[in-house]
Amino acid sequence: MARFILPFVIFMIVAVFLFVGLGLNPHEVPSPLVGKPAPAFSLPQLHEPDKQFSLQDMKGKVWLFNVWASWCTACEQEHPLFMEISRRNLVPLYGMDYKDKREDGMAWLQQHGNPYTLVVSDAEGRVGIDYGVYGVPETYLIDKQGVIRYKHIGVVTERDLSETILPLVKELQAK
Amino acid sequence: MKYLSILLLCLLPVFAHAGEATDMAADPVLEKRMIGLAEKLRCLVCQNESLASSHSGLAEDLRREVREQMQKGLSDQEIIDYLVSRYGDFVLFDPPVKKTTLVLWYGPFALLLIGIGVLVYQLRKRKNQIPEAELSAEETQRVAELLNETAESPNQPKDSQA
């Protein structure tokens, strides 16, 4: 009997590792930007391309920066939640239309509704590279000092919002 | 007709390859340097492909970024540092040795040592388990006979070769 114990223990250890590995999403790459100042940018606004919007404009505010695009189907999934954030005024929500044509971005917002206080257009995806964007949607939580406090890769769910993002927003606003 | 179509099918890969060089820079030397660097970097969208071989939109943008930074005169290391600061060590196919990657780098060697240890331990244990058997007088005589037989045998391979 005793001779089976060691192989069984080893098997269990390997099984636990493999099981945990199954649950990991290889597309969720931890961002080195969390805890670092958000990269500065100045981009034309989507609706008024003559006007620029820059990171500096958000100094002193805790805000969400959501990277989306009209060609991004997953963005439609999180969109209703963002509409609710906007309706209930939970946290200032700003958008970046990533690698998208201006008309397409505007048409998408017209069709689905616009939850954003303001949207900037990163047509060539250059600011996206600065922010380490590798897939949309991605959402950043930026604090009053302009430091990235949290990055969410993929669709933001109600649970992410209520359990992670909003508590963090409260904590950061209190500072 | 059938052979012709097969022949045409064989040519297909040639056309497939032609699609890759869509975003070449004017400067072939710089392009070569860029591709050389991009081969060491991972495309984050299709994660087992390098930046050099990926067709994804992000890979194209990153190649453009690398190319532009090279044109600005940045060294390869500076460009790698920039990308790592944005995307993390994950962009490197060759992760650096540091605290979080120690297991990755040295884990296999540790496992190897453990394996050798277990092997040595088991072999020693087995050696102890096999008792040294004393030969009886009869057996000793039989062994001596057998040994003599071989030594005297004219058909022994060594002798025949000599």
Produce the secondary structure layout.
The complex is a heterodimer of chains A (175) and B (162).
Chain A: H1 2-23, E1 42-44, E2 52-54, E3 63-68, H2 73-88, E4 93-98, H3 102-112, E5 118-122, H4 126-130, E6 138-142, E7 148-153, H5 158-174
Parallel strand pairs in A: 3-4, 4-5
Antiparallel strand pairs in A: 1-2, 3-6, 6-7
Chain B: H1 2-18, H2 28-38, H3 57-71, H4 76-87, H5 102-129, H6 137-152, H7 157-161
Helix pairs in contact in B: 2-3
Please sum up the structure shown.
The complex is a heterodimer of chains A (175) and B (162). Chain A has 175 residues and is α/β, with parallel strands linked by helices. Chain A is built from 5 helices and 7 strands; from the N terminus they run αβββαβαβαββα.
Strand content range of chain A = 15-25%
Low-confidence stretches of chain B: 14-22
- What is the ordering of alpha helices and beta strands of chain A? HEEEHEHEHEEH
Q: What's the arrangement of strands in the largest beta sheet of chain A?
A: 5-4-3-6-7
How far the N terminus sits from the C terminus of chain A, by CA atoms, comes to: 60 Å
Nearest-integer average pLDDT of chain A: 93
The count of helical stretches of chain A stands at 5
The CATH homologous superfamily of the domain at 23-96 in chain B corresponds to: Cytochrome C biogenesis protein
Radius of gyration of chain B: 33 Å
In the predicted model, the low-confidence regions of chain A spanning at least 5 consecutive residues are none
Written as H for each helix and E for each strand, in order along the chain, the element string of chain B is HHHHHHH
CATH superfamily of chain A: Glutaredoxin
CATH class annotation of the domain at 23-96 in chain B: Mainly Alpha
What's the CATH architecture of the domain at 23-96 in chain B?
A: Orthogonal Bundle
Give the biggest beta sheet of chain B: none
In total, the number of domains of chain A comes to: 1
**Helix proportion range of chain B:** 55-70%
**Rounded average pLDDT of chain B:** 81
